[in-house]
Structure prediction request, 212 residues.
Amino acid sequence: MLDTLPYADLLAIHNALADKHARRFDTRANGEKRTLALMEARGLTLEEAARLADVVLGASDAADHEPADEGPLAPIASPDVTAPDGEDFETMTIASGIAPLVTAFVAELAKTQRPAYVVTFLRRLNGDNTRATAIPRERQKTASQQKIIDLCRRPEGATGKELAEGCGWPSIAARATCQKLADRFGYALTETPRTKERGISFLMTAKQPAEV
Prediction:
């Protein structure tokens, strides 16, 4: 189902459905598992999820996921929500096969905090086919980012092996990862040379304020 998708498309679909975006997956298999779980939680097919993520499926992908017979038309079940500003929800008649999906989606629309995939859908519904511009957020660290920073802030710093083991990863591009985190969260990054006892270590220190 997802194993034939290019990595970039898989990541785009995941981020369109997830509340928190991922910059990458630790493994391809885990990325497929996480994306499939999000699709199942939203009740979406691969084609529906791809449309929300602005991903164009290949011919082979589309052929493997032809839409099933949606059955006879049935009235949608109204969710237990109140329309904004005292307005009434419009009654619709839809195919019974997708009634649960539409009911769940309408319930999401009524929430104050809307998931990313709902925002993307509404943007496309309004005729905006460009990719959504990310809304600036406060610089919040993920658990893995915090772990890397904590290890690098030790007096002895951290080697690439220590960083990978600390995060539970098989390997890590230590220099590039540490530099990105240092730049993003305001640290100065230094490296200590390799010794017989220890490999190259990466050390993060708080940047000193610029003199006026």
